[in-house]
Amino acid sequence: MMAAQNRIASLRTLALVGPAGSGKTTLAEALLHAAGAVPAQGAVEKGNTVSDHDAIERRMQHSLQSSLLHFEHNGLRVHVIDTPGSPDFTGQALPALEAVETAVVVLDAQRGIELMAQRMLDAAKERGRDRVIVINKIDAPGVDLPALLEQIQATFGKECLPLNLPHAGGVADCFFRATGSSDFGSVEAAHSALVEQVVEVDAAFVDRYLNDGDVPATELHAPLEQALREGHLIPVCFCAAKSGVGVPELLTVIDKLLPNPGEANPPEFLSGEGAEAQAVRVSLDPEAHVLAHVFQVRADPFLGKLGFLRVHQGTLQKNMQLYVGHGRKPVRVGHLFALQGKTQVPLDQAGPGEICAVAKLDELHPDAVLHDATEDEHIHLAPLTVPTPVHGLALSPTRHGDEQRLWDVMHRLVEEDPCLKLEQAAQTNETVVYGLGELHLRVLLERLKETFKFEVKTQPPRIAYRETITAYSEGHYRHKKQSGGAGQFGEVWLKVEPKERGTGFEFVDHVKGGVIPTAFIPAVEKGVREACALGVLAGYPLVDLKVTVFDGKHHSVDSKEIAFVTAAKKAVQLAVREARPVVLEPVVQVEVLTPEASVGDVSGDLASHRGQVTGTRAAIPGQLVVQGLAPLAELAAFQTRLNALTSGQARYTLAFSHYDPVPPNTQAQLAAAYKVQDDTD
Prior knowledge:
By secondary structure, this protein is of the alpha+beta class. Helices cover about 25% and strands about 30% of the residues. The strands form 9 sheets. It has an 8-stranded antiparallel sheet with strand order 18-17-23-14-15-22-19-20, with no helix packed on it. Strands 2-3-1-4-5-11-6 form a 7-stranded mixed sheet, sandwiched between helices. A hairpin with a 4-residue loop joins strand 26 (about 420-425) and strand 27. Helix 2 (about 25-35) crosses helix 10 and helix 13 packs across helix 14. The longest helix has 17 residues, at about 560-575. This is Elongation factor G.
């Protein structure tokens, strides 16, 4: 037992998150090199880093998917997940938080606080992760580090305190050292602020601090871990990953200050669904039942389906028989390994706290829990909140007859990213994929072409419009068909009611007296759902409505499932037409980083395209961030407009906010286009 405790105590897991271009991959490379895991430090510009091993990543010089890394240092085994920083790839970065104890948010000292830093700090807080801020590129020309630290504290809170400070081309420790100097001034003030912040979580240490005036940092490990768990302290570290400045000191922080799996907040496992779900406390006991969470799935043309796992309980062993979620048939873990970028390091087993990978298990899916006891089939992690994909692209294969293969391959790729969504447009028979932005979809198409050798034709980006109703209505339809032999008969009465925006679809069975036999109720629900998927007003899916079936008729001989599917479908369509249907459009949060002189022009452009400015905030000197809301449909050429307004100096990011009704003239155009298409069909 002692050996198991020592092994867990020697583990550290962290995810490098934050804006694109902040240097996360370079920092990962620097850590690997400083720990002796790689003989020489690679560079993103040269395309020889361990993390960015994909051909597209190397060509674009940006991380596009999360990469697993590990190294040994001072008796520790450290797992690192290097994540992409573009807002378009948030769906790759967020799941990494499910697998680690600490989120390390990397900032570019020149660019300051960017949208992805805020998003990832908020997400890490929501999931109960310890948070550390690393200010990278401190040796870049013209940086104002004291001003940036003040901005961090103003934005994220006074609990953001430096563990070290720049000093004479290096960094000076402020936690273990109580005296000394730095480029910011005396180390003593920074040390005192840290100790005061840490001891606040423990009354005994507060008394001791007030009486003695200081507490040796070496005795503050327990209250420090508590402060990190509670978010009472968010350490700030300084480094220049490319030159190695501050990297050894960061290794010391990982070693002495960051939590092991037993010191961090436990994962939020639940048993059951919805309001009935009960919290489950997992154990770091290597002898207990296996519970391992699949936080990411990757489609590999050679390895098949590749799953990234965090083992939370028990010991995962090669050739072990395990169940995948609710699956009743066990699967065998034939390929178990650690990943160093693309390099596979075979493993015989992985215990609690470890991050590993398994291959060639088609049953794997994102967010699945692998377990070895059937009674654990209802255990799952609390759902992860991810952005809603709203940029759409219609795809069709260049070769006739490849429609099913296109759907199958796209499904494999979409499964890797919770911020991608795949739909089959019934009216046009097109495959439509939705993502977070143009770059998101462009990279997806490049992977489709390069990895799976699949050529497609694309249509202009589609907006993910939706339909809903604004009034109560009833619908009735009798489906009767007679053609010589046995006929078809089904009759359905139902009512439709609007629900609050964002609450989804609800089906209710209020049939009494067996007028529709219980055996046919699933067919009725199928017809209702088919009608909602097709839409009624403009051909977009119906959302946020409640459909209640309350009456009907059947025939003892002629009633069949297909009859009730058809009757329910038609009844919904008739009811919705009388329920004052409206088309909804996605509204997105917009953040534009722009020169101060162009703020008025940018604000005016948003306003002229049905947007509204909600505020501004300071960015780096000479630039401001304009924040606002705008319909996604109005932002198709936004970057082009920004380039003209700011001489190419502005850039923007989007995040889904909510759905709102479109203007009446837009609704009329969409409905008319749908009617023309329907008539043509």
